[in-house]
Each structure stands twice: as structure tokens, then as C-alpha cells.
Write a structure and sequence with these properties.
heterodimer; A: 114 residues; mainly beta; Immunoglobulin-like; 7-stranded mixed β-sheet; 4-stranded antiparallel β-sheet; globular; B: 111 residues; 6-stranded mixed β-sheet; 5-stranded antiparallel β-sheet
């Protein structure tokens, strides 16, 4: 069965510090991978998605970046965090097949920037 | 530009009654719609979906209705149970698998 891991679960960082959130998927090959952010009072905002190693598409211009060094690993980074980066970050994966292109989400990381 | 809108941020329903969550969209290209359920501090989980070729899909207590002419879909939960209390997101996409999510509706089931 497929599983998705995210860590850390919670993170408190000062403004201006770097960020690295990791997501890994097990039990599937060549998944599409996604990073979302849920900010307070807002919906799920797609930040990045990737259809393969080294292939990253950015949906929202910001001070975040993403990388996919391995097939089932997706990393969200920032060189300098802003207060507005606080939120709940979710990684998700999907595999297109027979129209059942639902996305499966990880447990999320709660980021607080102070 | 919010292409998928959930205009009710919250909804309270008595246990046993029907819960109706609404979602409107603006992009007529969307051809697949999904509902996700999210508990606090957890990732959303897929609940039910519907293709644009259908107007209704049912799975147990959950039914999704799609009105393409009105660009509107709704999720019906009947009967509502305390474990249904969560945030519900509708989502839509076409072609390329990127989902566009609504802002969510917090459903509270009152015992």
C-alpha cells in the first residue's frame, strides 16, 4: 500500500531563517507530487507540483522553492522565511489512471514563523 | 481569482439531519469534481468525486450533485453524525491533474 510521510510535524522558526520540509512517498512509482499551503482562514493553495525528477512547476510567486531530487522525494525550501509563510503545509501525491486522479495527502507540517 | 468558491465558511447541523455543503465554480473547462474532508492537524482525505458527464454520485451517506448549467455542486450527508464534523473542501480540475480547491466549509454536527 502507498504511504506518504512528511516531517517535521511542527516547526517554529524566526523570521529570516531558512526552511526545509521533506516529503516522501512509498509504494508507488513516478507519482505526481504537490506542495500545498493552508493559511489561517484560507483554502488550500497549490504552491508547487512535479511530474518527475527535477521537474518543478510553480503556481504562486513567493520566496519558497521546491526540489525533487529523487522520484519519491519532494522538498520545500526557503532561504529566508517571512511572517506570512506561517501556515499548514501539505504534501500530496497522485497517479493518473482511469480518471481516478484523486490526490492523497500527507499529515502536514504546522509552520509558525515568529 | 478564486475559481472554486465555498461561500459558507461554517455550517452547524443537528445530528441525524441532512448536511448540505455547497460549492460554485467559474471555469467551465472543469470536468472533474471532488470533495475532501479534513480534520485539524491532518491532511485532507478524499471523500467522493463526480465527473461532468454525471449529475449525481452516491456513496453510502454521501451524495454529490452537479449542476453544470449553474456551475454548482453540493455534497449531501445524511444522516449527519458527530464524526462528520470537519472542514470540507471541494476541488475541481480539467486535463492536467492540478486541482483547484475551494476555501473550505467547517461543518459542526451538534449532538
Amino acid at each position: 500500500s502507498q504511504t506518504i510521510h512528511q516531517w517535521p510535524a511542527t516547526l517554529v522558526q524566526p523570521v529570516g531563517s531558512p526552511l526545509s520540509l521533506e516529503c516522501t512517498v512509498e509504494g508507488t512509482s513516478n507519482p505526481n507530487l504537490y506542495w500545498y499551503r493552508q493559511a489561517a482562514g484560507r483554502g488550500l493553495q497549490l504552491l508547487f507540483y512535479s511530474v518527475g525528477i527535477g521537474q518543478i512547476s510553480s503556481e504562486v510567486p513567493q520566496n519558497l522553492s521546491a526540489s525533487r531530487p529523487q522520484d519519491r522525494q519532494f522538498i520545500l525550501s526557503s532561504k529566508k522565511l517571512l511572517l506570512s509563510d506561517s501556515g499548514f503545509y501539505l504534501c500530496a501525491w497522485s497517479v493518473l489512471g482511469q480518471g481516478l486522479d484523486t490526490q492523497y495527502f500527507g499529515p502536514g507540517t504546522r509552520l509558525t514563523v515568529l | 481569482d478564486q475559481q472554486v468558491k465555498q461561500n459558507s465558511p461554517s455550517l452547524s447541523v443537528q445530528e441525524g439531519r441532512i448536511s448540505i455543503l455547497n460549492c460554485d465554480y467559474t471555469n467551465s473547462m472543469f470536468d472533474y469534481f471532488l470533495w475532501y474532508k479534513k480534520y485539524p492537524a491532518e491532511g485532507p482525505t478524499f471523500l467522493i468525486s463526480i465527473s461532468s458527464i454525471k449529475d449525481k454520485n452516491e456513496d453510502g451517506r454521501f451524495t454529490v450533485f452537479l449542476n453544470k448549467s449553474a456551475k454548482h455542486l453540493s455534497l449531501h450527508i445524511v444522516p449527519s453524525q458527530p464524526g462528520d464534523s470537519a472542514v470540507y473542501f471541494c476541488a475541481a480540475h480539467f486535463g492536467n491533474e492540478k486541482l483547484t480547491f475551494g476555501t473550505g466549509t467547517r461543518l459542526t454536527i451538534i449532538p
